């Protein structure tokens, strides 16, 4: 009898996992499920889930490969779409530059400490990722700025600048998603970051836009 019940039990467990709602924001260190480098598009990172300290994509390349300036590295897979995005923004009269790209685990530790020292621990938790939790470790997240502007976080709302507004409207067409949109902190667990975009590919970016959902909520359904 017990043996015959097994499939039913397994099915029930699978169903209940699939139906779990998006977890409330909390601070934890749980290994994220999809850590294979080929799973870059569905790797969920938030305040709960993290990648291993050793996570470092093998195909990181300098952005100089597509003619961009700055000492930044990103994954090969997104370079063509990034190049098209940069060209389109420039053609529209709103040239962009990169403020930050891939960040190693060690670099994230220093970055997080910087924000703790500047703004205090509680605020740093909301505005910056603890090491291992940052999408920048994936090599597919970029902080953008206006080409001739200051750091985007030194502007009151970068999405209200011409370049930031262009990104908010068009980034999805090139496979990029704003990970932490305005007024969605309950879902994303981070304050609004109009400069931080993650590459997920065009079909996913379009789907997220059409559903008016957040990247974290979308990724949760793929875990
Ligand atoms: Zn960022």
Characterise the protein shown here:
Helices cover 36% and strands 13% of the residues. By secondary structure, it is of the alpha+beta class. The protein has a single domain, classed as Muramoyl-pentapeptide Carboxypeptidase, domain 2, CATH 3.30.1380.10. The strands form three sheets. Strands 5-6-8-7 form a four-stranded antiparallel sheet. Strands 1-2 form a two-stranded parallel sheet. A two-stranded antiparallel sheet has the order 3-4. Helix 3 (105-119) crosses helix 4. The longest helix has 17 residues, at 2-18. The model has no long low-confidence stretch (mean pLDDT 93). The site of zinc ion has 5 residues, from strand 6. Residues 100, 136, 141, 143, 196 line the site of zinc ion (ZN).
- List how many beta strands DSSP finds: 8
CATH class division:
Alpha Beta
Small molecules bound in the structure, each named once: zinc ion
Structural class: alpha+beta
Q: What's the SSE pattern?
A: HEEEEHEHHEHEHEHH
Taking strands numbered 1, 2, ... along the chain, how are they ordered across the largest sheet?
5-6-8-7
Give start-end ranges of low-pLDDT stretches: none
Mean pLDDT: 93
Question: What is the share of helical residues?
Answer: 25-40%
